[in-house]
Amino acid sequence: MPQIVTTAQMRAIEQTAIASGRVSGPALMERAGAGAVEALFETWPDLAAAPGRAAVLCGPGNNGGDGYVIARLLRARGWYLDIFHIGDVRRLPPDAAQAYGLWRACGKVHSLHTLTRIIRKAAPPRYALLIDAGFGIGLSRPLPEPLRAIFAAQSRRALARRVVAIDIPSGLDADTGAVLQPVDAPMDEAPACAGLACTADLTVTFHAAKPGHLRGAGPGLCGKLVVKSIGL
Ligand SMILES: NC(=O)C1=CN([C@@H]2O[C@H](COP(=O)(O)OP(=O)(O)OC[C@H]3O[C@@H](n4cnc5c(N)ncnc54)[C@H](O)[C@@H]3O)[C@@H](O)[C@H]2O)[C@H](O)CC1
Ligand SMILES: [K+]
């Protein structure tokens, strides 16, 4: 049985390590990004051998920051990246803002609406990989509608051949394993088909599993769960 920590315990572990001066937030984020790329290629060695095209959804918090680190690392390995930001990049927290700045030194960022226009075209999946770095342990309310539309399209494999969720599939509560339902969503729709959360083939989390990975809608949405150490 994997070690399990709640989101509150995870934040306390991170903050204690950062406060002790043993490690910085940006260093933890770099380790998380590197761990995610390592897990990706361990799971799908064919992707390591043949770089392709990936879409990265980057959210307004440090989960999005992980996405910018991963994008930079994949680009260095010959991948072609389309980055789509959720929210206002000017309001990113410091660690994520630093990762964003490092990405912007080598690549562009599109608005999420660009991707919603792509999913309207009935075309074969454009990407080898969709990387969900929208929301992690800081999710506090149902996903915004454009993101739900993208996950609904991806539940029909309209965007990418494979999906990897960073830390936790966006839309899934990391403690309870519940999918946060917007007030306007019919209660009888299964979370995956309504796009209320990301359905991943692989979820890479850091330091330890969270309860939400293993209960409720978690197992069905996470796909294969890989835990990567970030040296905490
Ligand atoms: N601390 C570190 O250096 C590391 C963190 N890791 C990654 O960080 C996330 C946790 O980051 P945090 O910023 O706390 O939370 P999120 O990125 O999940 O998002 C919070 C952000 O989003 C807003 N928000 C919440 N729900 C919604 C919603 N439904 N719609 C719109 N906006 C929403 C909220 O207000 C915040 O602004 C963790 O999961 C890791 O991925 C690194 O992995 C390790 C280093
Ligand atoms: K995520």
Could you explain the architecture of this structure?
Keywords: Isomerase, Kinase, Metal-binding, NAD, NADP, Nucleotide-binding, Potassium, Transferase. With 232 residues, the chain is an alpha/beta fold. The protein has a single domain, classed as YjeF N-terminal domain (Rossmann fold, 3-Layer(aba) Sandwich). It is 41% helix and 16% strand. The chain contains ten helices and seven strands. It has helices at residues 7-19, 25-43, 45-49, 62-76, 94-104, 112-119, 145-154, 191-194, 211-214, 218-222, and strands at 53-58, 80-85, 110-111, 127-133, 160-166, 202-206, 224-228. Strands 3-2-1-4-5-6-7 form a seven-stranded parallel beta sheet. Helix 7 (145-154) links the parallel strand 4 (127-133) and strand 5 (160-166). It is globular, with a radius of gyration of 16 Å. The protein starts with 6 loop residues before the first helix and ends with a strand. The mean pLDDT is 93. The structure holds ligand LP7C6HRI and potassium ion (K).
